Amino acid sequence: MKISVIGTGLAGRALAAKIAHAGHAVVLGTRDPDQTLARTETSPTGAPPIGPWHDAHRNIPLVALAEAGGHGELIVNATAGTASLAALHATAPHDGKIIMDVANPLDFSRGFPPTLSVCNTDSLAEQIQREFPAARVVKTFNTMNHLVMVDPHRLPRPHNVFVAGDDPGAKATVSGLLEQIGWPPADILDLGGISSARAMEMYLPLWLALLQSLGSWDFNIRIVRPEQSG
Amino acid sequence: MKISVIGTGLAGRALAAKIAHAGHAVVLGTRDPDQTLARTETSPTGAPPIGPWHDAHRNIPLVALAEAGGHGELIVNATAGTASLAALHATAPHDGKIIMDVANPLDFSRGFPPTLSVCNTDSLAEQIQREFPAARVVKTFNTMNHLVMVDPHRLPRPHNVFVAGDDPGAKATVSGLLEQIGWPPADILDLGGISSARAMEMYLPLWLALLQSLGSWDFNIRIVRPEQSG
């Protein structure tokens, strides 16, 4: 499948590499590839300069957003949540395509911990779905660190990843992609329509509180049920 | 310890019974005990009429809120979140007392799933702490069903309960109470100051989405970490 990952932070890089390793034709999209490659500082969210990564992943072209839009049948939105709509406008049109949205609408303008720029009665994924009604948006992966996304077996199983979206076929495609990169089907929980993205995004403050309390982002949650329910 | 549970729904009843069983002197507070006893319908949140429960728990007096306030050294707020501040005004003054807040600020005015009446930059627990600055507010237990609160061993261990509050002594007292009603100390996670109640309350939409997806409220979450971190 032709897949474009947009956003060159830790999540975008990790997903691009893992999805390419699974055999897909992947490009990594960014607003200005030359500028992105020229950066020499670690980003505010902890991503080191992309040069060494890019040298080690020559099979993944770093391209402008419009080119990423032209390439991908499935677009992975791994941009910062507050920049996602603008970035997705640059990759449009998305008619019939799947947008796999892994972003979180974090607002760092008041410092750490960030607040959410949208929540409670709306979500980033719903905003994306409304902005691009002909796209099929699936929210997933936003509830964990990038290391866990692409290597679920680094943590003792089972632990869970969620999917939400209005299009069952798109959810099935995304779930299949999750399986290809290592997620056991039993650990993938379908939370229903795209409005459930509110629930997934509003979990972020708890994830951030756990990050601070545990002093590590190497964790995920498991839904624990009575023994007899399996 | 003299403990007053306020709120006669499923959580209030379950906590009152379990805490009394652990040996504490418990009263259950409600706005109008006669009216509460006279109800013959199941509540919108699924609580059956309290009469049979009351008959089975004669050791737990059902009292008006002012009397509950006079009794308790520790007040368990198990009222509906949108009614909590008014109820706690009726149990005041709380100087030096611990308010163990297990409520969620759920707004059902738009139907199901509810939204939160406060979130993101504030929380119910913070509102309570600001309203009663001489009280020591500890948020806990709001992230699970009442059955799990009082019987953690109904689910395969480990799974987690969170505490948040600005007063370390109050958190220690509440954690001790959690241990007395069955929570292993290792499963109790301290998320820091009372502002972390935002994180705990904003988890509710995910809890509600899981309730709908699983078709059961008999679940909780476990924080899964790499094997070597224990």
TrEMBL record, chains A, B:
Residues 32-53 are annotated as: Disordered. GO terms for molecular function: oxidoreductase activity. Pfam families: F420_oxidored. InterPro entries: NAD(P)-bd_dom_sf, P5C_Rdtase_cat_N, STEAP_metalloreductase. Keywords: Oxidoreductase. Residues 2-105 form the Pyrroline-5-carboxylate reductase catalytic N-terminal domain. The keyword Oxidoreductase applies. This is NAD(P)-binding domain-containing protein.
